[in-house]
Amino acid sequence: xxxxxxxxxxxxxxxxxxxxxxxxxxxxxxxxxxxxxxxxxxxxxxxxxxxxxxxxxxxxxxxxxxxxxxxxxxxxxxxxxxxxxxxxxxxxxxxxxxxxxxxxxxxxxxxxxxxxxxxxxxxxxxxxxxxxxxxxxxxxxxxxxxxxxxxxxxxxxxxxxxxxxxxxxxxxxxxxxxxxxxxxxxxxxxxxxxxxxxxxxxxxxxxxxxxxxxxxxxxxxxxxxxxxxxxxxxxxxxxxxxxxxxxxxxxxxxxxxxxxxxxxxxxxxxxxxxxxxxxxxxxxxxxxxxxxxxxxxxxxxxxxxxxxxxxxxxxxxxxxxxxxxxxxxxxxxxxxxxxxxxxxxxxxxxxxxxxxxxxxxxxxxxxxxxx
Length: 371
Ligand SMILES: Cc1cc2nc3c(=O)[nH]c(=O)nc-3n(C[C@H](O)[C@H](O)[C@H](O)COP(=O)(O)OP(=O)(O)OC[C@H]3O[C@@H](n4cnc5c(N)ncnc54)[C@H](O)[C@@H]3O)c2cc1C
Ligand code: SF4
Ligand code: SF4
Ligand code: SF4
Prior knowledge:
- By secondary structure, this protein is an alpha+beta fold.
- It is globular.
- The protein contains twelve helices and 13 strands.
- The strands form three sheets. An eight-stranded mixed β-sheet has the order 5-4-6-7-11-12-3-13, sandwiched between helices.
- The structure holds flavin-adenine dinucleotide (FAD) and iron/sulfur cluster (3 copies).
């Protein structure tokens, strides 16, 4: 290669500096943690997550950057390789590929009580543990200060406390940065001899599952351990402090006294005395995270299964299966009676599904129009 050609090709590789200038600094970062998880799992020692913001660890680590460019490639907010993964995931329109769509709810009482809608996500994970199809799952939980944080759980028993929706960012991909530091005790307990054999289910918002989709497409570590990718529907997400400040202003309820929150046109909450409150959704606009204003996703196109509430009868979840594997998974849950489908008269099934698809498309339109 001549020197000028070499310089030109080096210039084309976008690195963390570019990610910072084009995505992070303008407020478009969705804090998924993919860039840090990749870089750290390779031991490059360049960047870290500072709260919800990826940054150089210190001025001394800037030169450690190998200029591999993968942080820029896998970031869900850059459009690199999107055309290729669209093809890979057979994306036909704004909803992505739909193998099937229907409503269902869990048949397990404890999950029904703890779950957000139909308890489908927790039932899927519980089944995968039971059938020894996964060794771990990445879910989200509250920490001691009630911040939403990602968590790798290794036991089915730990799933229930992660059930339900937390309407603030949880950097779901970040725990993968420590993949190669998972304790020997856990590895032995799981009966695996090499961390590369770990099988994991991932739960996240559509932007996060897009990053996983990019990583899976590129076959890059540490996402190679993700065997199942479940996307939650997501219209918008909130800045934790701003959200709870507005809630406190509107209802006088402190975060620690909130039992459950949900969105159904407006924002609802139940306090620990089971008293319900409603806040007009518009009032929460100042708390919406900046990156959500440019988001064109709603159902999570780059997943194996998407789950949400929109379009589902009360107490049920809508499920979209995205590929054969995702479809087989849900069919197994149905056939084993772990979830039950919302029954529609056979004559009306086609129309029912078409109406749901039209509704979800309207949600995407509404979202992009709002943007
Ligand atoms: C920020 C956000 C916005 C949403 N907006 C909509 C919407 O507009 N319309 C709609 O139909 N559905 C929306 N959902 C999805 C919906 O709230 C439920 O998560 C979904 O219906 C699954 O319900 P379930 O009862 O099957 O899940 P459950 O069995 O209760 O399991 C929920 C799973 O989601 C995980 N989780 C919870 N909070 C987060 C988080 N912040 N980040 C990553 N994982 C998390 C939990 O750890 C758990 O594994 C949203 C979810 C989130 C996180
Ligand atoms: S080493 Fe690679 S992944 Fe890490 S910051 Fe540099 S370009 Fe990004
Ligand atoms: S990869 Fe995720 S955390 Fe990193 S800059 Fe992009 S959106 Fe932010
Ligand atoms: S609205 Fe879009 S960018 Fe915001 S959290 Fe949901 S999927 Fe991510």
